[in-house]
Amino acid sequence: MDISSKYFSKLHQPGFHSLKHGYAFLLDIYRVGKLMEAISFVLWEVMYQLRFYQINRRYVKFTETVGSLVATETDLLGGLMPIQLGLNNQKIDCQLVGVDWKYCFWGTDSVLWGCRFSSLTILYRSDDHSQSASAVYDFQQPIKSIYINRCNVLFVCTNGTLYKSHDQGFSFVQVLQLSTSISYFLFNNGMSELPDQTLVIGEYGSLWRDKTWKNLAFLYISTDGGDTWKTSDFLIQQGVNKHIHLLKYSRLLKALLLTDGDNKKQLWLNKSLIRLDRKSSRITDGWCLINKYHHQMGGYTSMAETEKEVLLGSDYLAGTNFIVSTTDGKLYDKRVLPDPYRRSPVMNMVTRKSSSGNEVWACSYSCLSAEARSLLMYSKDGGNSWTRVIEFDGTRNKVRLISTSHEPTADLYISVTEFGNREEQHRHQIYRISEKLQGSH
């Protein structure tokens, strides 16, 4: 179960109720094996309250500007959710687009492929930067994730099955069955391609069965372009109990990074790039474990890299969250998100190309409390400082980074969702972040 979300609000109740829920909380922690994570939560909380991070200058540093979601009665009647961008320069443009992408992937030929909120089962393509999109293939089941390799071969995951297209989406064949029908890989983070064109997938999903999580922490490897796959359960053998968050190749480190989720929340590094199904004590001979305990950081759900560093976003819902950077895979610089953003995990990161150099965009999100604010932000200096683009209440809205590519692109897409009483009543607006043209307003 999700211990954090189950007890987050109840533990703020006074008196006997707080003690009762606190006791039940401790019992659940012990029963599901999250004691070490809970100890780390307490350690980080004490360090934060004692201002340890402030004294040692370990905070994520923000510029003074901050943007927000802005809604008035007139705006709501007009069907728009206007946003106020907290930008400290005027070189970035934000335009509302007509294609309601849920997520989209740029091919190396500049064609944009994706799934739409209004048609979750259909794969679309756009050749005109989202001025329009054409339906290509209907999978009959909601599309869960999309990946395109460097040869522009399409992979789509739906209903626990991976499909591959040899003809630009006109037909698909089933190439891999994941361990359950609810399984998939996390968009932008759970599938990657190595320099020798080997493809890797980390299985993700949350399935509570018989008072425990069903273990979905399988790694899949293909050396023939995705036609056939080998399954590895080395993570399960190492005691990982739930799923894989992150599986991405880093050109800077010349290594594959993997993070597992739930109880252990570990970070693994593989520089051999050939021994992908085994643990090793040496970083050049298989998967090397970087952290043993939660307080050493791990379990990241997001990653982006610039020319000089790799950035990772932590996944500690209702706890303390960090943005971590490394230049060599050995030393890790950890900076804590300050309140009111501290309890919101950094769910996704994307690198955007700009005229002044690559930017890293990141989005933190929590739906547990209006006090735990969520944030879309970007950095122009490799994470040394961040501009708060949109701050929002995750109980009422959700802002997501929804586009990705192999190489940084000038255009970046975000979705802004306003929650309705039911999912079909949610409202979605898609914006394109791009370089403002000279002379435009």
Q: Per the principal axes of the C-alpha atoms, what is the gross shape?
A: globular
Distance between the termini: 49 Å
How many individual domains? 3
Tell me about the largest β-sheet: 6 strands, mixed
The number of helical elements comes to 6
Strand line-up in the sheet with most strands: 2-1-29-28-27-26
Helix content estimate: 10-25%
Rounded mean pLDDT is 89
Uncertain segments: 7-13
Structural class: mainly beta
Whole-number radius of gyration?
21 Å
Beta fraction of the residues?
35-45%
The strand count comes to 33
Organism: Spirosoma fluviale
Protein name: BNR repeat-like domain-containing protein
InterPro entries: WD40/YVTN_repeat-like_dom_sf
Describe the structure.
The chain is mainly beta. The protein has 3 domains: about 5-50, no CATH class; about 60-100 and about 300-440, no CATH class; about 180-300, no CATH class. The protein has 6 helices and 33 strands. It has helices spanning about 5, 15-30, 35-50, 50-55, 75, 235; strands at about 60-70, 85, 90-95, 100-105, 110-115, 120-125, 135-140, 145-150, 155-160, 160-165, 175, 190-195, 200, 210, 210-215, 220, 230, 245-250, 255-260, 265-270, 290, 300-305, 310-315, 320-325, 335, 345-350, 360-365, 375-380, 385-390, 395-400, 405, 410-420, 425-435. Strands 2-1-29-28-27-26 form a 6-stranded mixed sheet, with no helix packed on it. The chain has a 5-stranded mixed sheet with strand order 7-6-5-4-31, with no helix packed on it. A 4-stranded antiparallel sheet has the order 3-33-32-30, with no helix packed on it. The radius of gyration is 21 Å and the shape is globular. The chain starts with a helix and ends in a 6-residue tail after the last strand. The model is unreliable at about 5-15 (pLDDT under 50). InterPro entries: WD40/YVTN_repeat-like_dom_sf. This is BNR repeat-like domain-containing protein.
